[in-house]
Amino acid sequence: MPIRNRNAYAFLAPYLLVFATFWIWPIISSFLISFQNTRVNPWKFSFSVNWGRLVGDPAFYNALYNTLIILVIQVPVMITIATVMAVLLNSPLLKARPLFRFAFFAPVVVGEVAYAAVFRLMFSFDFGIVNKLITLVGLPAVSWFDNANAAMALVIIAVTWRWAGYNAIIILAGLQSIPDDVYEAATLDRVSKSQQFFHITLPLLKPIILFCVILSVIGTMQLFTEPFLITNRGGPGGGTETLGLLLYREGFRSLNFGYASAVAYTMAALAVAISLLNLWIGREPK
Fold it and tell me: Which residues belong to any copy of the ABC transmembrane type-1 domain (predicted)?
């Protein structure tokens, strides 16, 4: 090996060592733990005790169902809202655009506990502003924390509120990379603004939108904060328990690390599979 290459690897060695210690080894170790019975002391190898339980565990299927419901509903809604927000933020007619960009991005930097507490107050049955507005239009107040469907809707609203602006900023960067010449030529050809959006903007934004979708899929498969803090650990009755909450409950409350590792690898496999499916659907035709 040339001395120049040896010097390069010598400079990389501290990072590679830290990466192997805190990333590679935990990944391998948790995979091995998923094949062990961690309910006995000392732990013993048993393939079926965790993976066999996973196949027939109603709690796992409930968490998987809830996670997929959030994924199927929340991600398309959020990406649609983010795209609309990005187009509005990119409009030359909008004044004080930097202020609006900061305002839309701000939810990402708000503390999780703080915004969860605000959402719990806003959606309170007795004195929440949301129920006040609902009753003003003649509809009955909604018990957001005692009804599984309402609690699921609340989680979807909270996640969308927090991450729509983040995705809008990413899509806005993609919008600003589209040359103005494309729109000028379309305008000269008397192409309407709506046609420009659907036939020029969206096709050129396809890779950016696909990137946001994949990020959102990975984030949703790990969803933990909103159901834990807002709907009181996946309540009511497990109605909003996600795979992330199930992993937490098994690993850090029941101390069943083997089963928690099996759940974690199932989450990772599902995230990879759904992301690959999105890449296949969004591939460019040959």
Answer: 64-278
